[in-house]
Amino acid sequence: MDRKTDLTETRSLSVAIIGSGGSGVVTTGKILLESIARFGLYALMTRSSGPQIRGGESAIMLRVADRPVASLDDHFDLLLALDWLNVDRFADELPISTESIILLDSDQGEVPPRFNLSPERQLAAPLSQLAAESENGRANMVGLGLLAQLMGLPLETVKETARDILKRKGDAVLASSLLCIEQGYGQAPEKKIITPLTQPSSPTTRWNISGNEASGLGAVQGGIRFVAAYPITPASELLEWLAPNLERLGGGLVQAEDELASVNMIIGASFGGVPSLTATSGPGLSLMMEGLGLAVASETPVVVSNVMRGGPSTGIPTKSEQSDLNLALYGLHGDAPHLVLSALSIRDSVFTTEWAVKLAETLQTVAIVLTDQSQGQARAVIDPPTSPMLEGKRKLAVEHADYRRYALTEDAVSPMAIPGDADCMYTADGLEHNQLGTPSATATDHQLQLDKRRNKLSGFDYGDDWADISGEGDICLITWGSASGATREAAERLTRAGYPTRTVAVRLLSPLPIARFSAAIEGTTHQLVVEQNHGAQFYDYLNARKVLPPTTGSLARPGPLPLRPREIVNRIMKGL
Q: Can you tell me whether residue 297 is helix, strand or coil?
């Protein structure tokens, strides 16, 4: 799979599938991704759609390699167009080169100028005609067969996958779909126009999972047993995964009437002793802030999974952007220390969400976990994820004599009583209080409790899990969240080209482990902070914490276009 060299080397194959609403783009992508997983390779599949509630044009963007894939490549090698309707709406998300191959249905009209490569780079096939030869035939299944043959995927693997995914549609639809796949598989030219994929000699078991599913898995592995939430794009799939799986574990999910109700429901459930979570996106997180302040003041552990999208206001619900960082860090009123974490990949969504739950329970605080649309609604073929070492248990009240809910302990975490214990009664509300929980407006009590809530977070040993650090060199790329994939690949390309580069991908955003961060970038001479938002929010945050050298650069670009490795490489090369 070595197909590229120097700063663009990727050892991968990138495929895009486009079509109008109802053309079956997403179904085609799902079958292709699972076929790749069964073939034994890694892959990442993202999707793009318009703001319509239902229907509308869509695109599937997939990258496959013999090593883990965490970002899209600089351009697509193969583009399958089921039709060209409204393709211009997301044409910017489909970069191609003069070496790309365009696969098209010969019955779907002229190729738009933007995709009209030289004739030798286009392969037209009668997808619609072949589909019409069988009852219930679909052109997307013919296209899938053609694509699979060009990529080097075995026909039986693709058909077996299609059987598993389409079996609910009935025998007639399944039979015609399998026939269409076979017809498409036979349409490929005898001369190979791309280098086909190579199957590993000893394929291992891998997972095919979405980012939202991974976050849900991490939540239940961390101990979450109650969820209350209001549906919102792009977080709804997380709730859809949690609903049946929580029930199997003896827990439950409530669809609340709005985000204000959601956050207060999880505070109540957690106060009652049940680890609890809500999931939302930027507009919903804004509404939750007052409730989260109550959780901080009452030291009630709760977790918020915030799947970011383009903003402000309604913004771009179906596109990705890392623009909720400031809201997550500073959105609560008053001095309200809490945890903010970011998942660094789809695979890492399991680890980070589980770690967030366990930290929230251990430290009796609020944890906000930031993912985004490009992670949550994407799918990847990954190695099985790991789990954090932290046990993550609440410190519960065991001694009833002279019980003090907010006692000033050595680690600043005080024993928490569960309602119903007559010997551990205390006042629980959002007012400032003394150690007993009795409301107090004295300067002494306010100072002591502010210090307590701060010190339990700043004094905790988070270990090495605060960031993923890779590589060595004079160049240092600093990033967070979904930007980590493209940033790591850019560092690998720079290193291969003779510019050794280190990557620091920060998982624990707040409280930032300042000493560990300073040690991680020590010895580097060129630093660049990479993020996907317009306001350079992470760069400004790090500067506010006084951890960046004054010469550090910023690459901050908003969505909806994803960051790509070449963009980061070019920025570094420009500054050397």
A: helix
pLDDT band at 4 (very low <50, low <70, confident <90, very high): very low
Q: CA–CA separation, 562 vs 45, rounded Å?
A: 13
Nearest to residue 537, comparing CAs of 481, 498, 496, 575? 481
Is the pLDDT at 221 greater than 90? The verdict is yes
Burial 133-148 (b: 16+ CB within 10 A, else e): ebebbbbbbbbbbbbb
Q: Which of 183, 163, 185 is nearest to 34 (CA)?
A: 163
Rounded to an integer, what distance in angstroms lies between the CA atom of residue 329 and that of residue 311?
17
- Measured between alpha carbons, how far is 296 from 89 in angstroms, rounded to an integer? 43
Is pTM beyond 0.90? Reply is yes
CA dihedral 50, 54, 55, 61 (to 10 degrees): 50
Q: Are 509 and 329 in contact (CB under 8 A)?
A: yes
Residues 399, 147: Cα–Cα separation, whole Å = 67
Phi first, then psi: give them for residue 282, nearest 5 degrees.
-45, -55
Asked whether the beta carbons of 475 and 502 are under 8 A apart, the reply is: yes
Distances (CA, A) of 216 to 72, 210, 226: 24, 10, 12
What is the distance between the alpha carbons of residues 286 and 326, in angstroms, rounded to a whole number?
Answer: 11
Percentage, residues of the chain above pLDDT 90: 88
CB contact set of 475 (below 8 Å; sequence gap of 6+):
491, 494, 499, 500, 501, 502, 524, 525, 526, 527, 528, 572
* Mean local confidence (pLDDT), 201-208: 87
Distances (CA, A) of 209 to 318, 495, 533: 19, 30, 26
Cis status of the peptide bond prior to 560, with omega within 30 of 0: yes
Picking from 391, 302, 370, the residue whose alpha carbon sits closest to that of residue 508 is 370
Q: Which two tokens stand for residue 394?
A: 């609440």
| Residue 5 confidence (pLDDT) | 42
Please give the Cα distance from 466 to 508 (Å, whole number). 5
Distance CA 474, CA 525 (A): 5
Half-sphere exposure of 471 (CA within 13 A, CB side): 26
Distance CA(483)–CA(325), nearest Å, equals 13
19-33, 301-315, 396-410, range with the lowest pLDDT: 396-410
Q: What is the mean pLDDT of the chain?
A: 94
C-alpha–C-alpha distance, residues 75 and 566, integer Å: 10
Residue range 5-34: mean pLDDT, rounded: 86
525 burial level (CB within 10 Å; 0-12, 13-18, 19+): exposed
Query: Any residues with CB less than 8 A from the CB of 414 and at least 6 apart, and which?
Result: 299, 364, 395, 404, 405, 406, 407, 408, 435, 452
Pairing of strands 252-255, 226-229: parallel
Measure the CA–CA gap between 552 and 531, rounded to whole angstroms: 14
Amino acid at 359: L
